[in-house]
Amino acid sequence: MSQPTAPSQTVGPEYRPATQLPTATVSTSVSRPNVHILAQTPQLIALLTMIRDKDTNRADFIFYSNRIIRLLVEEGLNHLPVVAKEITTPVGHTYAGVKFEGQICGVSIMRAGESMEQGLRDCCRSVRIGKILIQRDEETSKPKLYYDKLPEDIAERWVLLLDPMLATGGSALMAVDVLISRGVPEDHILFLNLIASPEGAKNFAEQFPKVRVVTAFVDQGLDEKNYIIPGLGDFGDRFYTM
Ligand code: PRP
Ligand code: URA
């Protein structure tokens, strides 16, 4: 199958001469101010290479996905607002620091989004987590909402919405509609995502310009079944059942 042209760049430590660096496919850029793509570091590209490989077994898929999820959560937290906090150290000196403003919660789009819950818990102790069950119809690719269970005070929280795959964008858009219908302000939503299609990312970012998207990689496109290409296949199947 022919693929759209992929951006590529040399990857590796800067102390090595460019002639000794391999060339790899890197993320497509998206010209939307609310879409933030992780730095295309050698580590991230190596981790993505592992999970994209069809020969990677389930245990390795889980391990390397978790590594990327951790990077996403760590970066996502940088997008939450902070306020000044001055503290005194044990040696009697003050330090002008910051603390996060307000409370957060996670919301996973089931099933694949649940894979990102542990990464969030590892960074945010006793974080509350809500669930939205949305499934894409295999024939039409249209999302269907089955169920949601969200913290009662979600309207007062910053929400980290979790789903590793953004293909057409339909599922993520539907999830944001649910959050907004529960009173969550659009600009209090942060969507954490591993791989997006360019059309899905653009569509989502245009419909919800105040939702911040933090993704590890924007791929080249969608195939005729609306799977991301080159992608990694069905994330939920590879993480939970294959
Ligand atoms: C996948 C994925 C997203 C959605 C992306 O879930 O986890 O939720 O598809 O596609 P879209 O952007 O075109 O809506 P799926 O519905 O296959 O269910 P799963 O999580 O159980 O695998
Ligand atoms: N869901 C996935 O898991 N992968 C895709 O490529 C598209 C939707």
From TrEMBL:
Residues 1-11 have a biased composition (Polar residues). Gene3D superfamilies: 3.40.50.2020. Residues 40-240 form the Phosphoribosyltransferase domain. The keyword Glycosyltransferase applies. GO terms for molecular function: GTP binding; uracil phosphoribosyltransferase activity. Its EC number is 2.4.2.9. One of its GO terms (biological process) is pyrimidine-containing compound salvage. Residues 1-26 are annotated as: Disordered. Belongs to the UPRTase family. This is uracil phosphoribosyltransferase. It comes from Massariosphaeria phaeospora. The lineage of its organism: Eukaryota, Fungi, Dikarya, Ascomycota, Pezizomycotina.
